[in-house]
Every structure is written in C-alpha cells, then in structure tokens.
Amino acid sequence: MPAPIRLRELIRTIRTARTQAEEREMIQKECAAIRSSFREEDNTYRCRNVAKLLYMHMLGYPAHFGQLECLKLIASQKFTDKRIGYLGAMLLLDERQDVHLLMTNCIKNDLNHSTQYVQGLALCTLGCMGSSEMCRDLAGEVEKLLKTSNSYLRKKAALCAVHVIRKVPELMEMFLPATKNLLNEKNHGVLHTSVVLLTEMCERSPDMLAHFRKLVPQLVRILKNLIMSGYSPEHDVSGISDPFLQVRILRLLRILGRNDDDSSEAMNDILAQVATNTETSKNVGNAILYETVLTIMDIKSESGLRVLAINILGRFLLNNDKNIRYVALTSLLKTVQTDHNAVQRHRSTIVDCLKDLDVSIKRRAMELSFALVNGNNVRGMMKELLYFLDSCEPEFKADCASGIFLAAEKYAPSKRWHIDTIMRVLTTAGSYVRDDAVPNLIQLITNSVEMHAYTVQRLYKAILGDYSQQPLVQVASWCIGEYGDLLVSGQCEEEEPIQVTEDEVLDILESVLISNMSASVTRGYALTAIMKLSTRFTCTVNRIKKVVSIYGSSIDVELQQRAVEYNALFKKYDHMRPALLERMPVMEKVTTNGPAEIVQTNGETETAVLETKPPPSGLQPANQVTETDPGMISRFCRYAGFLFPTGIPSITAYNKNGLKIDFTFERSNTNPSVTVITIQASNSTELDMTDFVFQAAVPKTFQLQLLSPSSSVIPAFNSGTITQVIKVLNPQKVSDSKKNC
User: Fold this and answer.
1) Which residue of 19, 74, 127, 296 is most buried, as measured by CB atoms within 10 A?
2) Nearest to 625 by CA among 690, 678, 712, 679
3) Which ranges carry the GAE domain (predicted)?
4) Residue 717, helix vs strand vs coil
5) DSSP secondary-structure letter at 708?
6) CA distance 349 to 36
7) CA atoms within 13 A on the CB side of 247
8) CA distance linking residue 56 with residue 558, whole number of Å
9) Selection from 396, 381, 375 nearest residue 347 by Cα
10) Do the beta carbons of residue 164 and residue 132 sit within 8 Å?
C-alpha cells in the first residue's frame, strides 16, 4: 500500500472543503483508508494514523474504532508511539468502557520506567481517566513518585494523587506521609500542585483539615515571600510574582481558617498585606484581590480587615470590566447581612449599577439595593428603585415590584407614603405585581381611616381613561365603591379636592365594565362598586338599578350571579340594602397556618379561613387543605337567612382534597333575627386531619358567634364528623326579620 498522507496534509485538505458535505466525504474516505491500515496490522504508520484519527475526533467525527490501536501504541517501546497512544487513550477512553482496564499493566510498567518523560505520560493518563479500579491498583506507585526528588515527577504525581483521592477517598491516608515535605520545595510547580493536593484532602476529611491547620504559618511564609520578592522572569505575570500560586494558597488558607480562631488570627496580617500591596491596574491583581476578599469574609477575621475587604469590592464596582463589577456585586450581596454598615458606604455606587446596560449586573444591583433598604434610607432608595421600575426591562418588573412592596411594608415612614408608593408601583407595573398585592393594598387603605378621601381621589385620577393596569383598576373600583361619597363631596384635605359628580363616577365604573381590557375579576370589582354606590349616592339610584339589571343576563357566570343577587336586594330586600352594603370594617391580618390571611373574591375583600395541620408524624399528607372558597363561605355567612325565603336548603360549602364541609340552616326559635348555621366536616383521606379551625367574618352591623367545634380531629375514611354551630345575629332588623319568618 502507498504511504498514508501526513497529519499536516490532512488538515490542509480538510480546510479546503467548501461545504459540510464535502468535508464529510473527505473524512469518510480517510477513515476507510485508516481502517484498512489497522486491519493489515501496519506498525510502520500506526502512530500517524492514530494522530489523524484524533484530529478527526476533535472535529466531532466518530473515532472509537481506534481505541485498541491506542493500547498497541502505549505498549510500544518508542517514546513517539507512547506519546500518541497515551494522548489517544485520554481522548477516546474512559472508565465506562472495559477496554481501559487493559492499560493498567502498561501504566504500571511505565510508572517504573527509567525515563522521566515516559513516567510523566503514565501519570498524566492515570490522573486524567483512571477508574477507581485502576487507582486502587496503582496508588502505591503514585505514592512512591510523590516522594521522589525529581521535581518534574513530583508535581505530576501530586496532581495524579488528587484524582486518586477523588475516585477512592479511603486511600487518602496513604498520601499523608508524603505531604510532610511538599511545602518545603522551592520549585513553584511542585508548590502549586502540593497546595492543590492539600486543598482536596482538607475539603474531603475533617480529620485532615484539623491535621493540616498546623501548616498555616508555613503557608503564610510562602505567601509573604511571593508578595515581597523581587522581579522573577520565570514566574512574573504582569508584574506580579506567580499569581496562580498566590490564588491557590489563599483558597487553602480560607479552608483552614474557617471556624478556627487561632488559624484566622495567624493569617490576618498577611491578608492585610496582600490586600494593600497588590497592584490593581491589571486583571491579574484583581484576581488575587478577589480571592483575598473571599478569604477575609470566610474566616474569623478582624472587623477592620472586613471593612478593607468591602472597600476593595467597592472599588471593583468602578472598574470598566463588567465581569469584575458582577463578582463585586455578588460578593457584596453575600456579605450585606453580616457587614451591613460597611456595605452601606457604597450605596450610591451600587444604585448607579442599576443603570448598567448589562442585564446580569442590573439584576445583582437590584437585589443588593433591596438588601440595603432600612428605616433611615427608605425614601431615597425607594425613589431610585421606582425610577428603575419605570425604565427596566419587563423581566425585572415582577421581582422589583415585589421587592418594593416588601420594603414599603417593613420600613414605611407614614401611611400616606406607603399608599403613594404602592399606587406608584401599580401605575407603573400593575400587570406584573404578585397576586396578593390587591388585597394587601385594600387592607392598608381600609385601616388608614384618615386617608380615605385622599386615596379615593388619587385612585380616581389614576384610572381616568386608562384601564391597562388591572390591579390598579381593581383597587380603584373597590375604593370608589367604599368611599365614593367622599369623592363626590370633595372632603380631601391632603391635596386640592376635585369636583366630581355622581354621574361622572358611574361613567368611569361603567367604562371599566365594558372595556375590552378588563378581566372578569375586574368587572366583578366594578359591578360590586356600582352596587355599593346605591347606598352612598342619592341622585343616581335608578341608573344603578338599570346597570345591575343589564348584567343579570351576562354570559360571565360570576358576574351574572352577582347581578341577580343585587337585583334581589333591590326588589325583595331593599330595606336591608343599606346595612348589607355599608362600609367594610377595619381588617386585621391574622397570622395563621391556614391557606389565606386576607382573601379577595371578585370585588369583595373578606376574611374566611379553613385550616388543618398535618399529623404529628411529620408526614405531609395529600389531605392537607391548601385552598378554600372564601367567597362562597363568606357570602352564605352574610346572606344566609336574609336574602332567601324560609326553608334554606343544605349546601356543600367546601369539597376538596378529601375535606368536605356541609352547611345546614335554621331559624332560632327564641330569637327570629338569629340564623343558626350548623357545620359538618368529614374526611375521606387515609390520615386524620388535626387542629381543624374554621373562621369567618361578617359586616360590623351583624354579630357572629362561633361556638366551639365538637372536636379538633377529623377522623379518616369518613369514620366520623366534626360539628360546629355558627349564629348570625342582625340586631338592628328584628322587626324586618320577623316579617320574613
């Protein structure tokens, strides 16, 4: 056969291919020739063919058929053959293929070879792809080479030992005697690999960590020599002596000093020297400073040293390199809880990063800005964050809005400021706010009695002609329904009142009802608001009746149900309408284990919580209640016995996750104005439900009495029920209730 082409010629030929198909054709042709040569056991050109095969493997083409040829080259006595063979083994073989075990004996022989370069090839291969079986068989040979006086072999043996420890951790103690003198080596390559080996051993074994803590003074001495030594062309990188070794030593010091007072104290001075003497004009120096900062923040360092570390991160924020700014923000975010005051000094620089064009930097700056908010800077920080919310990309708006809500709730200097801030968020990014924003704001407004007139006026102006921000429209509709009389009367003292007529207010709410941008929930808010205004307005009641009547035939079932109920109020129970539609009482947030604190139901904000706790075993059963229908429960608590004629049928108020709750209704024989509701709760799951609690709320003109349940445990498999009696009293309508009996 003619001699195969050389690797250089193959590379040149492949590079001339104009299309992928042409390249593939060249590769297939060459692979066929290589296969033929392998079949004929051509020893002369095996090395050349395997080299070409490795190049094609690097291009992404299959080369597995050359695995055995690599083993034949490894067994050769020629160094050039061994070099290509070991390279091929590292690229084409791994521990998932049994053929790699055939190399074990060859590697063992080469580890004891008389030539250091052959020994080096064997160490590199074992350290790259050696399996746990190979590592067990050859660990003794590696340990011998780790004790040799040859620096070339010691550095390779140290890295190979790292791989052996990762594969077989129990062999770690075998290398312990050999590590005693590693740090006394003058060769930087050996020092570097020795530090890597010590780091691996400390990370994997607490006993090794305690053992090597005595090396801290020696590591400190090596690091000091590096930063104080003069120019060394062999190790100099941009004017810094061996930055790679410095970084490795700093990482090992960080591990050794963590949670240890003595070790931390021993390294405080050298860390201060590195932090103050390292050149920052080059990226090499910044890498060392970053590792120094991480070490200072992770050990038990002095307070002054921690401030120095944070100031270094502050300088990083002014760097033109985006990567350096990003790692600075990430590091500050990790330390802000423990060194809050030191990080606060760089607040203006952090806020400036919100304007960065890089989205990763912008997100980290946003997260860190929220972590810096406190009672002293809340006004200034919220101003910056609101500006950011107004101009940021859509993917930031949800997280930013949530962060502003939490910060405002925690640090608000006044209720007016709190309301203004939340309204600003709803106006800017209403479509991105979390689901509980609406009921939380309604609760805040309800409890701020002195701000009702101001709030309803602000909300009215906010939604004029713009219904795109649905949460804002929902809150505005609810407030107009509750406090529409204050809006019309112009009683606002906090700012100049506006002149609004009853018809103009109804025009806005009707526009919400018919707007294509309004969701079903928003329409529910608007319809309920219009109904509430029937008791707050005096000149537009007939118009309200017509609007409500129209939606009695709406295709939206929820909207139709509400309209029918409201029509019933107008036609049959008009005498009860003022009491039923009076203003909501002050809402209190109650921390419970239940699924809700304050819940909303299409235009009404009500409190109704069902809760059960898991069994004492700690298991999380499938029958734990995770959601309720508070609208149904609250409506029946509110309307049962008042909107319906005598003889109210029993209903199933809740039936989910194995928990079923039935309501039965009856009149009190002693007091006709009292409706008695009996609850029966059953459990169809396999586990008992414990700590059952039922809660409900009614308007303040009613009185609600919750009697104690018959038990707090609902038995599994429907083997028993819990009963509880609720009494709803309407003390101001005794005579009217008698008429309905």
Assistant:
1) 296
2) 690
3) 646-741
4) coil
5) P
6) 67
7) 12
8) 67
9) 381
10) no
pTM of the model: 0.68
Q: Strand pairing of 703-706 and 721-729?
A: antiparallel
According to the model, what pLDDT value does residue 719 have?
83
Check pLDDT > 90 for residue 236: no
Here the tokens at position 419 are 């309301």
Distance, in Å, from the CA atom of 316 to the CA atom of 33, rounded to the nearest integer, reads 57
Evaluate the CA torsion angle 224, 227, 230, 234 in order and state its sign.
positive
Q: What is the secondary structure of 721-740 as a DSSP string?
A: EEEEEEEEE-GGGHHHHHHH
Lowest mean pLDDT among 142-156, 263-277, 332-346, 641-655: 641-655
**% residues pLDDT > 70 (the chain):** 89
Give long-range contacts, CB 8 A cutoff, 24+ apart: 169-172. Answer: 169/204, 169/205, 171/135, 171/136, 171/139, 172/201, 172/204, 172/205, 172/208
Q: How distant, in Å, are the alpha carbons of 7, 15, 24, 27 from that of 19?
A: 21, 10, 9, 13
Residue 596 has pLDDT above 60, yes or no: no
Quote the pLDDT of residue 589.
60
Residue 724's φ and ψ, nearest 5 degrees, are -150, 140
**Is residue 248 predicted with pLDDT exceeding 70?**
yes
From CA 719, how far away is CA 716, in angstroms rounded?
6
- Residues of the chain with pLDDT > 90, as a percent, come to 40
Q: Is the dihedral of CA 665, 669, 670, 672 positive or negative?
A: positive
| In the predicted structure, residue 668 carries a pLDDT above the cut 50 | yes
Other beta carbons less than 10 A from residue 703's beta carbon:
13
Q: Mean pLDDT check: name the lowest of 136-150, 405-419, 424-438.
A: 424-438
User: Is 227 within 8 Å of 263 (Cβ atoms)?
Assistant: no
Cα separation, 396 vs 577, whole angstroms: 45
* Strands 659-667 and 651-656, sheet pairing: antiparallel
Check if the beta carbon of residue 343 is closer than 8 Å to that of residue 335. Answer: yes
What CA–CA distances, in Å, run from 87 to 57, 67, 201, 365, 613?
A: 12, 11, 28, 46, 62
Residue 312 parent element (H or E): helix 303-316
Question: Residue 23 — φ and ψ, nearest 5°?
Answer: -65, -45
Q: What is the CA radius of gyration of the chain?
A: 39
Evaluate whether 272 touches 278 at the Cβ level (below 8 Å).
Answer: no
Nearest residue to 442 (alpha-carbon basis) of 407, 468, 481, 410: 481
The pLDDT mean for the chain works out to 84
Instruction: Assign 3-class secondary structure to 567-589.
Output: HHHHHCCHHHHHHHCCCCCCCCC
Contact 165, 193 (CB under 8 A): no
At 309, list the tokens.
């570390």
pLDDT in tens, 326-365: 999 999 998 888 888 899 999 999 999 999 999 999 999 9
662 forms bridges with which residues in the sheet? Answer: 652, 680
Q: Are 733 and 573 contacting, i.e. CB atoms less than 8 angstroms apart?
A: no
| C-alpha 67, offset from chain centre | 45
Is residue 512 within 8 Å of 473, Cβ to Cβ?
A: yes
pLDDT at 740: 36
Sheet (strand 703-706) strand order: 651-656, 659-667, 674-683, 721-729, 703-706
Strand partners, 728: 675, 704
Residue pair 448/419 in contact by the 8 Å Cβ criterion: yes
Q: What's the distance, Cα to Cα, between the start and end of the chain in Å?
A: 113
* Angle of CA points 389, 391, 397, to nearest 5°: 40
Cβ-based neighbour number of residue 342 at 10 Å: 20
Q: How far apart are CA 209 and CA 200, in angstroms?
A: 10
- Report which residue type is found at 430: G
* Residue-wise pLDDT tens digits, 131-159: 888 899 999 999 999 988 899 999 999 99
Q: Find the helix or strand (DSSP H, E) in which 605 lies.
A: strand 604-606
> Does residue 424 or residue 638 have the better pLDDT?
424
Q: How far is CA 644 from the centre of its chain?
A: 49
